[in-house]
């Protein structure tokens, strides 16, 4: 059972998400909040697996709330829920530790799929939107950029495909590698970059220039 917390300052949005998630046999809503300031205590009480996090809230926005959650020893997965795919807050939230984002106008089945994908340990990335966000927020992290440059050729290949939004099985097909070999490369990339998940690794790829923000 996937335990989900909903964070949004609009009660109608929360009600819609609660109805959507609550109707799934493998999911349950274990808590709700209308502002980011309430999120750390709520998560500590409810122990969710996934948090659906609005970014624009009156007291504490989704970026700072996500950053606060990531300081915990075993933080939940965070999916940013936003109105626009070019929302400047999204890139900040991803850098703060969110695993991906969905649009509020997404189809219900896509939102549910996002919860399942992130809960399974994958990242939910939309490369075109990430490129736009990276372009608007260019600013390299020196040590991490140097770490990207130090990756092996095969690790760089894998990271580029991760930045295109490919899953491990899709990367396996592209590079003619076994899925377990891809998993080993992904683990090595995360360790070398000093990041906790695929999203952070992809952001490092854009920051370093390994993946160009001006492509496609």
UniProtKB/TrEMBL annotation:
Highest taxon in the source lineage: Bacteria
The molecule here is called Response regulator transcription factor
Tell me which UniProt keywords the record has, alphabetically: DNA-binding, Phosphoprotein, Transcription, Transcription regulation
- Gene3D superfamilies according to UniProt: 3.40.50.2300
Domain HTH luxR-type span(s) in chain numbering: 144-209
Coiled coil where? none
> Which PROSITE patterns does the entry mention?
HTH_LUXR_1, HTH_LUXR_2, RESPONSE_REGULATORY
- Ranges of residues in domain Response regulatory: 3-119
Check the record and name the InterPro entries matching this protein: CheY-like_superfamily, NreC/VraR/RcsB-like_REC, Sig_transdc_resp-reg_C-effctor, Sig_transdc_resp-reg_receiver, Tscrpt_reg_LuxR_C, WalR-like
In the UniProt record, does the keyword Ribonucleoprotein occur? no
Please list the residues that carry the modification 4-aspartylphosphate.
Answer: 54
């Amino acid at each position: 059972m996937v335990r989900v917390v909903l964070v949004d300052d609009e009660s109608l949005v929360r009600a819609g998400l609660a109805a959507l998630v609550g109707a799934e046999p493998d999911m349950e809503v274990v808590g709700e909040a209308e502002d980011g300031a309430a999120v750390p205590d709520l998560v500590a009480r409810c122990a969710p697996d996934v948090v659906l996090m609005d970014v624009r809230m009156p007291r504490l926005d989704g970026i700072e709330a996500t950053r606060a959650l990531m300081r915990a020893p075993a933080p939940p997965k965070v999916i940013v829920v936003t109105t626009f795919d070019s929302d400047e807050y999204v890139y900040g939230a991803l850098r703060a530790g969110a695993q991906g984002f969905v649009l509020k106008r997404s189809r219900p089945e896509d939102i549910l799929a996002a919860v399942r994908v992130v809960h399974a340990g994958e990242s939910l990335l939309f490369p075109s939107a990430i490129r736009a966000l990276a372009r608007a927020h260019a600013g390299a992290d020196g040590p991490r950029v140097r770490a990207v440059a130090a990756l092996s050729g095969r690790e760089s290949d894998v990271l580029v495909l991760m930045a295109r939004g490919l899953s491990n099985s899709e990367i396996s097909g592209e590079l003619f590698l076994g899925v377990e070999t891809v998993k080993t490369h992904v683990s090595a990339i995360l360790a070398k970059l000093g990041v906790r998940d695929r999203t952070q690794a992809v952001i490092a790829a854009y920051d370093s220039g390994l993946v160009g923000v001006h492509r496609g």
